[in-house]
Each structure stands twice: as C-alpha cells, then as structure tokens.
Amino acid sequence: VALVDPKGLHPEQSQATHYIDDATDPEWDRTFNFIVAKPYSDNLMLRVYDYDGATSFDDLIGQAIIGVHELAVHQGIKKAPEEKWLTLLDKEGKDRNAEGTVYGDILVRAYLDEEYFQHLHGGNATGEVGRLSVDVMQATELPSPVTTFAVVKMGPYWTRLPSIQNSDCPKWNQRLRYPVFEPAARVTIALFEGTATSCKFLGRVKLQLSTMEDGVRYAHDCQLMTLGTNGKVTKTCKLECGIQFDYHKSGALVAKKYMEPLLPDKWYFSPMQDEEKEKVIKAQKEMIVQRVGNASPPLDAVVAKELLEFAKHEVNIGSIKSSIARIQRLVAGFDKLSGALTYALSWDSIPVTAFAQMYIVYLVYYPNMFMPTVLLGIALYSLALFPSRYQRVLDRMEADEWLSIGLPFAPPTEEEERLRKEREEEEKKREEEEEKKKKADKEKADKANKEDSDKEAQKAKKEKEKEDARKKAEADAKPKLQEAFTWDSINPLAALQKQMDEVFTMITISQNILDEVAGAAERLAGILAWEEPRVTAGFVVVLLVLAWMLIYVEAVTRFFVTIILGVVVKTIFTIISPATIKFGISAGILFVLRHPAILPDEQTKVVQEAKKKAEREAEVAAEHAGDDDA
After folding, report:
1. Distance in angstroms (rounded) separating the CA atoms of residues 456 and 454
2. Is the peptide bond before 297 cis (omega within 30 degrees of 0)?
3. Rounded mean pLDDT of 590-615?
4. How far apart are CA 534 and CA 532, in angstroms?
5. Burial (CB count within 10 angstroms: exposed 0-12, middle 13-18, buried 19+), residue 323
6. Considering Cα of 60, then 62, then 67, then 71, what sign does the dihedral take?
7. Among 217, 219, 236, which residue's Cα sits nearest to residue 227?
8. What is the pLDDT of residues 318-335, one digit of tens each?
9. Torsion angle, alpha carbons of 403, 405, 408, 412, to 10
C-alpha cells in the first residue's frame, strides 16, 4: 500500500503486509494509516506481488489506483464506509495477461477521516476560549555580534520575527496575539542564529497555557541553552519575553473545556495501536516540516524540528536520559518530605519534636483522626506552595536541555563543583583507609582458614571432573542434528540488519514507556504544586471537605472505622482492653523517639559524639575566620 504524489514533489510513502504462501485467495486483514493534506492531490496505490523469497525480486501481479479526493469522508464514531472490490491492472492498464488470465480483484476499505487528527491542527476553530499575548523583547549576553531571528509557535500557529543583522543585543519589541482553542496547548519561543534557510539553534522558552492564570503577565529573562554535538549543555544567551493568557467570559469557557475530553472521541472508541499511532504522528510532523519549508518566507528543517520536538519520535538516547532525570527530579521532592519528617522527629528542634510526639500519642488514642490528619496535611502542604506559584511558572519557562544528559537539576556552578570534588576526595581517602583495615582483617582470617579451604577446593574439583565426564559421555551418545540454513543465517548483512531493527525497536519502546511514566508522574505531582491552578484549587477543596466529613459527620466516621480498622482490631480489643493497648503503643513510641540524652545506646552515642565534634570544628573555624578578619 503506497501513497504516491503524481507530480513527484514528495517521496512515496509505502507500507506492506505479511506474505501468505501458496494461496489463490489470501486474506491479510491489515490496517494502514497515512497522513494526507488538502487539496488531496495524492493517489492511493495498492500493489499485489508474487513473493519469491529473499533470493530474488518479487513479481508484480497487478495494481489498483484510487485518487484520495475520491474517497468517502468518515464522520462520527459509527460504522466505517463499506469495502469495495477493485480490479487489479498491470502497468499498461490491462486486467489480464497475454494468455487471457485475469490478475484478480482485491477487497479494500479506504476512506478519509478528518476528525481523528483534527486536534493536531488546532481543533474546532469556533471554540475560542481566550487570547494569548506573547511579547518578544530582546536577546542579551550573546558572545559576539551575529544575525539572529526568533520563531514563535502557539498550537497550529507559526510566526517568524524579522532577522536582526550583526548584533550582540538584538531587539524585536513585538507583541503577538493568538486565539486559544485548547488550554492544554503550549507556546514555544525559539531563537536561532543565521538565516531562515541555514541556521543554528540557540535555545527556546516553552510554557503550557494551563499553568497560567487569567490576566497575569509572566515576564522573565530566560536563560537559553543548547545541547552541543559533544554532549555538553552550553549556555548561549538570555531572552527577555513576556506571556499573558486572557480568558473569555471570566474563565467559564476554559472551565467548560476542562470538562471535555482532551482528544476526539475516536481516540477512545476506535483507538490505534501505540506503534501505529506513533508512526502516524511522526508522519504528520514530517508533513508540517515540509510545508513550513515551502512557505514564504521558508523555514529550515532545523527550525521546524526543534519547535515540533521531533527528536521524541526518533531513536534518541537523550530522550531516555531525559525521562529518567525527570523521574529523579520528582523523587527528590519525596526526599525533601522525608527530610522534613526526620527533622520533626530528630530532636534538632525540641519544641517541634515534642509537639510531633504529642500528636502521635493523640492519634493513638483517637485513631479516627488519622485519615483527616493525612488529608489536612496534604491540603496544607499544597496551600503552602500557593504564594510561590508565580515563580514556579517562571521556572518552567527556563530551558531544560540539561535533562537530555541525565541531570535532574541545573548543572552546578564552578564553585559548587570545586567544593563537591573536595568532599569526594575526602570521602575517597576515608574509604581507602577503611578498605585497608578490612583487607588486613580479611588476610588474617583467610590465613587461618586456608588449609580447610584448600581441602574443600580439591574435593570440589574432583567432583566437578566426574560430573563433566558424565555429561560429555551423555552428549556423545545423543544423535547430532543437522543445522537448517536459511538466507538470513548465511547472509551476514541480513542478519545484522535484523539485529539492528530489533535493537531500534527495543530502544524506541523503552523511551516511549519512560516518557509516558515521567509525564504521568509529573502531572500527578503538579496537582499539589499548582501546575494547573484550577485543578489544584478543586483538589484542595475536595480534601478539606473530606477531612471535615471524617471529623464531624458521624456516619462517615463510623463507616471509615468499620472498613479500615475492621474485624481484626475488634478481635484484639476483646482480648486486651483498648486502654492497655493505647498505653503500650504510646509508651513504645515515646521510648523509640526519646531524646538522645535519655538511655542512649551505642549507635546514638557515636552519632552524638560526631555531632559534637562537628560543632566544635565549626566553632574553631569561625574563630580562626574572625581572627583573620581582625
């Protein structure tokens, strides 16, 4: 099956079915998808071949050609158009050969679906929910005067700003306005060095519209970065820009849009396989790259691919590193939460730890307050992040090219790198000393047990020799099978190509899975971090309502205690009185979380001595620093 341009302006797109041996009525039952664009000037060509194997060329039996403009348009999610029988013809247009044997017919269902990928081209143009203003001011800190230009992409809209010739501080001072049909769209501002047809990527700023509040202008000097061919991230310059999203009807249309599915109905009722969907989306982006290249003025393929993030649809180790780094960045947030809990129970602050222990005892005596506490804690954590939401939006605008080299956070400065190396050297010396000590102890132990180990080794060696001899005798007694050679096995190039295809497939599947996992984890964490203010506000309200219900609504509390605590707790309470259990649990928790000065064990003594030593060293260092200043 091939999509052919009669004018020959773009290359043929083709896909093939599997072959069926020795059949006069083969049934393939395969579905192929192609991306086409209006005015639908391409032809759909179906070719049927006589498969001759890998050692020769296949013979063409016949072909059928359909103009894409002749195909029926499928709308809605109802049954697709009916199949049609098409007569196979040869290249001369005849339906039979010189002996009068017909080439046959082929049953095909072919149709146009203009709704499946409508959202990739802007969706419904009548459903405008707001207006986006993009201010591109200037670029600074360029290393030398060069020719630069900026490109803005918002949804299906592309805007190329004029080139600024030979300047190390190019200024545009332009405001662009775009209609917004989908709040989940993304705006991207990219900067390039050179001309529109031959340029170098300097960096980009990108922001999801759903993270922006109504009428708030997000202005920032964004640091641009690029990933060089040597695999290192290079800071190129800074771009001053501002973005503002104004809702229509006070956000009512945006809220309504949130109630609708993000994708068309066909994506849910008639889903594609993941491999096929990825292939079609990549083909759609390839078509956009070709179209903007033929636009006036044209845009180089480098420009289009950078703004479309085309690398996600190719085998790209950087994409895998980026997904892993995104997951590590989220895990770092849990490390901060773990650190906060450790601080609350570590007696570093006596009032905080005392209050935490008192509340733990309170939960022991009133277990029905545990779930409300968890819900209130999550809600309060989210509310604590509310004042800093503006700065977090500005942080999301910054470039994230360092993710492609596996760094979850921005690279350290030179001073931070120097201090890190010093710490690593000290740690290495300490580990070497410990290793030497362990090695000496091990040598003593090995010397004592050497004689016993030698005897055991000789005995094991004899047993192994006997077992090997037995296996060899059994193998010689078995009849030897002859190896069946195939074309792939005797052709090294075919075998190598097959292995490479398997490797590329494995890498592509891995990077797609990691990207989906990282994206889902980021969206889940974003619910608490006000990444989408409307979603987070609704989530916090739900948490507070649930906590209030669990505290004050007796029926809900009774249901929660019955379901969560269950029969096990009731059975234990019949054997031991609740007061005894609560007292025992409280005493045990308080003993475990006691102050280090109360009945310290050996490990606690060591930790406390290390802390005191570190404090004394810090005091001595501070005194020396004061003497030097004096």
Report:
1. 5
2. yes
3. 68
4. 6
5. buried
6. negative
7. 236
8. 777 777 778 887 877 777
9. -110
Give which of 5, 72, 1 is closest to 42, Cα–Cα: 5
User: Could you tell me if 44 and 68 are in contact, meaning their C-beta atoms sit under 8 angstroms apart?
Assistant: yes
| Residues 6 or more apart in contact with residue 205 via CB below 8 angstroms | 188, 189, 190, 222, 224, 239, 241, 397, 398, 399
Q: Measuring CA to CA, how many Å separate 148 from each of 136, 194, 308, 309, 542? A: 13, 6, 20, 21, 49
pLDDT tens per residue, range 84-108: 999 999 888 888 888 888 888 999 9
Gyration radius of the chain's alpha carbons: 35
Confidence band, pLDDT 50/70/90 cuts, at residue 491: very low
| DSSP structure class, residue 214 | B
115: Cβ contacts below 8 Å, ≥ 6 apart: 74, 75, 76, 264, 266
DSSP 5-57: -TT-SS--EE------SS-SS------------TT---EEEEEEEE---TTSP
What is the model's pLDDT at position 555? 63
The owner of tokens 């906590």 is 547
Beta strand 186-194 pairing with 130-140: unpaired
**215-231: per-residue pLDDT in tens?**
999 999 999 988 877 77
Cα of first residue to Cα of last residue in the chain, in angstroms, is 85
Residue 60 — φ and ψ, nearest 5°? -75, 120
- What is the maximal distance between C-alpha atoms in the chain? 111
Tokens standing for residue 359? 């509340």
Following DSSP, what letter does each residue of 398-457 receive, concatenated? S--GGGGGT-SSPPP-HHHHHHHHHHHHHHHHHHHHHHHHHHHHHHHHHHHTHHHHHHHH
CA distance 252 to 257: 9
Work out whether the CA dihedral 305, 308, 314, 317 comes out positive or negative.
positive
Nearest residue to 274 via CA among 513, 36, 15: 513
Beta-bridge partners for 133? 177, 244
Q: What pLDDT, on a 0 to 100 scale, did the predictor assign at position 132?
A: 94
Give the SS3 label for residue 163: coil
Identify the CA nearest to 187 among candidates 159, 173, 216, 208. Answer: 208
Which of 120-124, 372-376, 575-579 comes out lowest in average pLDDT? 120-124
Locate 577 and state its tokens. Answer: 């009185």
- pLDDT digit string (tens) for 8-39? 767 778 888 888 888 888 898 888 888 888 88
